[in-house]
Design goal:
Layout (H helix, E strand, L loop, with lengths): L2 E7 L2 E7 L4 E6 L5 E6 L6 E9 L2 E8 L3 E6 L4 E8 L5 E9 L2 E8 L3 E6 L4 E2 L4 E2 L4 E9 L2 E8 L4 E5 L17 E9 L2 E8 L4 E5 L17 E9 L2 E8 L3 E6 L4 E2 L4 E2 L7 E7 L2 E7 L5 E5 L4 E2 L9 E9 L2 E8 L3 E6 L10 E2 L5 E9 L2 E8 L3 E6 L4 E7 L5 E9 L2 E8 L4 E5 L17 E9 L2 E8 L3 E6 L4 E7 L6 E6 L5 E6 L5 E5 L4 E6 L5 E7 L2 E8 L2 E6 L10 E2 L4 E6 L5 E5 L2 E5 L3
Antiparallel strand pairs: 1-2, 2-3, 3-4, 5-6, 6-7, 7-8, 9-10, 10-11, 11-12, 11-13, 14-15, 15-16, 17-18, 18-19, 20-21, 21-22, 22-23, 22-24, 25-26, 26-27, 27-28, 29-30, 30-31, 31-32, 33-34, 34-35, 35-36, 37-38, 38-39, 40-41, 41-42, 42-43, 44-45, 45-46, 46-47, 48-49, 49-50, 50-51, 52-53, 53-54
């Protein structure tokens, strides 16, 4: 992601992000969910973003590599007015302010100019403010009653311009030894200040009235500083900075000291920082080139708790516990976690015990109790009582990673079917822990994926493999009852099976379309106009749907027609797992985050 800003949209505090794919995403900071996304179709990359209030409504303002400033309505995703043109090279920065009572945008570009735009009329205000070299960052402030712009430049200087007269207020601010990539403004002891971050690894503070440095530079970052912002925390002015060293740091502007430990969590550089007040608490909203958005509680000095694992999520399913719908997730942090579908809050403590990545999770009901069944790299299968929040059994028998787990009913008893890289399928009685029958015949080559379904009242296990063959086995008799070749040959993996909709969803290698199979005839019947890495089947307002994910793109399809429903939804990370709960909510796991989407 290239940049992040905050603002109020539809009466709620939102974060707005832009990225290289030309997509603007609006995130609800209260729920942590994606509120809306829309594509800026005229460009390849959106490089800067801010928000402004124009004519009583909140708008998103973008700066892009097509050299324009554009306004967007975040509620509809539609452009407002014409593009603001004048820059002759890429825009790297945009900020909003007020001039003579009118909302303005201030933009900085690689052409070495800062330009001011009247957002009501779409007209440039005055002449360009000329610098020497690219302008990487801009911010606005009020100095002695005058609106000013602060610019961070490639020539290692910080410049301050009077927006009304177009004149430089004081001499250029010098001290950085490399390009200035971030600027912000604030107030310290009643004096307006500018805060700048540079590729020289430092953060500096400047008196806007005199142009003099305020104290010594902040040192602590071990690599380039990409972002700075200011806030007030517990009554004291602070600066928040983000760097290529992967850390977010908070500095006390009065005492000149770092506050607490660095915030870590982003995997990557290009950090961007914005501050806001969420539910009365000062927070920092950050993003980086790991494509995640994170919210940090600046008072408590820790990340705001959102539905998130500490490492990437690999598996998801849904269940009902104590009458409320929940989401079960599992991943590289070796835990299984339970979340309330409606609120996104964790239910109980993480379920721990696995000693390696948890690759699969499923649910069942045993003796009237909801249970989760998980399998992972430690070669074990574990059973968890979801009401009590504890492990109640552990099955061993596989000699390699357990990569898939599914549940079924055989002779009226709940069973778990597990697939492993040891090329075997095992069936377990969930009530007694005993193996059911002999192991299903081993594949000659490793399997890829496994789901369970029902054919003619018989529980079956469906597997794929590198031979391009879909195999269907009777779980009770351990007999193979059908075998068919994927339309595309080669690798094929079953991703999901319909409940009440007798179909199977499969994916293949080489960007081949997702296939839909009829579970009754075990024949492929349709293709979806997408490839995919994760999939699910469910019901949405009475319509049977398929959900597919590729990279960070999520699509919803009508299973009957094979046509897409709505537009593609974009996420800031690689989607590893998806599910659809009985209420039609779509659960999306990307990186270490869990998001729940509703039809409304």
């Amino acid at each position: 992601m290239r940049d992040v800003a905050t603002g109020v949209v539809d009466g709620r505090l939102m974060a707005v992000t832009v990225s290289d794919d030309g997509t603007v995403r609006v995130w609800d900071l209260t729920t942590g969910q994606l509120h809306r996304s829309f594509s800026i179709r005229h460009v390849d990359r959106a490089l800067a973003v801010t928000t402004a209030v124009v004519g009583g409504r909140s708008l998103v303002v973008t700066g892009t590599d097509d050299r324009t400033v554009r306004l967007w309505d975040p509620s509809t995703g539609q452009q407002v007015g014409k593009a603001l043109t004048g820059h002759t090279d890429w825009l790297f920065a945009v900020a909003s302010g007020v001039l003579d009572g009118r909302p303005v945008a201030v933009s900085g570009a690689r052409d070495g100019t800062v330009r001011v735009w009247d957002l009501t009329t779409g007209v440039q205000v005055g002449r360009p403010l000329t610098n020497y070299g690219a302008v990487w960052a801009v911010a606005t402030a009020v100095l002695d009653g005058r609106p000013v712009a602060v610019a961070g430049c490639e020539d290692r200087r910080v410049r301050i311009w009077d927006l009304a007269t177009g004149k430089q207020v004081v001499r250029s601010l010098t001290g950085h030894t490399d390009s200035v990539r971030a600027v912000a403004t604030g107030v310290v002891d009643g004096r307006p200040v500018a805060v700048s971050g540079s590729f020289d690894h430092t953060v500096r503070v400047w008196d806007l009235a005199t142009g003099e440095p305020v104290g010594e530079p902040f040192t602590g970052h071990t690599d380039k500083v990409w972002a700075v912002a200011t806030a007030v925390v517990d009554g004291r002015p602070v600066a928040v900075s983000g760097g290529e060293d992967g850390t977010i740091r908070m500095w006390d502007l009065a005492t000149r000291e770092q506050i607490g430990e660095s915030f870590t969590g982003h995997r990557g550089c290009w950090a961007r920082v914005e501050t806001a007040v969420l539910d009365g608490r000062p927070v920092a909203v950050t993003t980086a080139d790991d494509r995640t958005v994170r919210v940090w509680d600046l008072s408590a000095d820790h990340e705001v708790r959102q539905p998130r694992h500490s490492d990437p999520v690999h598996a998801v399913t849904t269940a009902v516990v104590d009458g409320r719908p929940v989401v079960l997730t599992a991943g590289e942090d070796r835990t299984v976690r339970c979340w309330d579908s409606a609120t996104g809050k964790p239910v109980g403590e993480p379920l721990t015990g696995h000693t390696g990545t948890v690759a699969a999770v499923a649910t069942a009901t045993v003796d009237g109790r909801p249970v989760a069944v998980s399998g992972g790299e430690d070669q074990t299968v574990r059973i968890w009582d979801l009401t009590a929040g504890k492990q109640i059994d552990m099955f061993t028998g596989h000699s390699d990673r357990v990569f898939a787990v599914a549940t079924a009913t055989v002779n009226g008893r709940p069973v778990a079917v597990t697939a492993s890289d040891d090329r075997s399928l095992l069936v377990w009685d969930l009530a007694t822990g005993a193996k059911v029958g002999k192991p299903l015949a081993k594949e000659r080559r490793r399997m890829s994926g496994m789901v369970t379904g029902v054919i003619n009242s018989r529980a079956v296990a469906i597997t794929g493999g590198w031979s391009g063959t879909i195999r269907v086995r009777d779980v009770a008799t351990n007999r193979e009852i059908a075998r068919h070749l994927s339309l595309h040959g080669g690798y094929v993996e079953p991703m999901a099976v319909g409940q009440g909709s007798p179909v199977v969803l499969t994916r293949s290698a080489g960007y081949q379309p997702v296939q839909i199979w009829d579970l009754g005839t075990t024949q492929p019947v349709r293709e979806l106009a997408t490839d995919g890495y994760a999939g699910a089947i469910g019901q949405l307002d009475g319509t049977s749907i398929a959900v597919t994910a590729r990279s960070g793109e999520l699509s919803v399809w009508d299973l009957t027609t094979g046509y897409p429903i709505g537009e593609t939804i974009y996420f800031p990370g690689w989607i590893k797992a998806v599910a659809v709960d009985p209420q039609g909510r779509i659960v999306v796991c990307f990186d270490s985050t869990v998001a729940v989407l509703t039809a409304s």
